[in-house]
Give the backbone structure.
Amino acid sequence: MTLPRAAAIHVIAPEKSIKPAGIAHGDAATIAEISAGLLAPQASTSPKYFYDSLGSHLFEAICELPEYYPTRTEAAIFAGHGAGMAELIGPDMTLIDLGAGNCAKAASLFPLLQPREYVPVDISGEFLHQSAAQLRQRFPDVAINPLVMDLSQPLALPPSVPVARRQFFYPGSSIGNFTPHDAVAFLRQVRENVGGDGGLLIGVDLVKDPSVLDAAYDDAIGVTAAFNLNLLRHLNHLAGADFDPQQWRHVAFFNDAESRIEMHLEARVALAVRWRGGERSFAQGERIHTENSYKYTVPGFRDLLSEAGFRVDGIWTDDAHWFAVMHAAAAYA
């Protein structure tokens, strides 16, 4: 499939893709970060460690579950309002897809948005490059330039990414993994990289009945549990740890006071875990906090974007107001 464009777009060959280092096995900084989280009074890990190749595939499976409404709800918003989004944004942009995964969401919008270049950004390098290679076959007229990057680190795009007409794309409510304070800081970094003529199209999960939220993050057949537990296998690989996933169980619930879903791994028995340069004993029932997913109101998130230096010029929701997609332009040049 090709885009309805008058002129051909240069295709960047796979070997010319941008390939900075992602999370490396045995990397000292990675081990230090993992160790600091595990040794904190409330043990925790970054949700970025979900996404090795298996974790990325498991998340794809989560998105197909009947309980997991965000993917299909957001997709319905794009299907119903994509033309209006494209009219607002305009064609011929560099589309920068943050946390791209399998690139499917952005690819579904290619015929409407008509990007001249696509830069999918993700932490799972092998999975990202496989997805980009498949996408090149479907859209040979689009320059596809994958970028392996840890979004928990400062956002700095390489010089090879064109400065003009940068359109950032951050779907799927991934912004909810940040605390509101950190979300503002991250969005300010996006704003610094947007330039004066770019923008941001972002998905936001909205506050709703807690029973709906609880089910979405603790599905009946246990795919989300497998996704959470796979993090332990990834830590074993990255930090030389000796976690036994069978000794842990998945816990997820909505924290109303913080307006967030929390995911944890809970020790089934008293146990000890060792990794390169550290160890910790866990009591039965003690938890490792693995993820937050904050839920917003439309006015609340609009204010957050404004604080980060954006001006919201488009808001689209589903009929039930479970999910929102917002477009924000640079509030100042």
Remarks:
- The domain at 63-150+161-208+295-328 is CATH 3.40.50.150 (Rossmann fold).
- The chain has a mean pLDDT of 90.
- Residues 205 and 323 are 5 Å apart (CA to CA).
